[in-house]
Amino acid sequence: MKEYSTIILSKSEGVYTITLNRPKRFNAINGEMSNELLDAMENISRDDEARVLILTGAAPAFCTGADITWFTSVKELI
Prior knowledge:
GMP Synthetase, Chain A, domain 3
């Protein structure tokens, strides 16, 4: 199973679980997490044994939305 920096991907008997794993930022989504989520979901979609995808967040929160500190770095690129 591929290793990621901001998410944890696991599989058991056709059930995939993606855990958002930035607990210090309340699992806020930044560019890296967004890319990792897309990559993981593309890989899952290619697995003929995949039946279910569970999306969860590492404690203390599921996801607070977008990480606004990431917007600052994106703005500088524009």
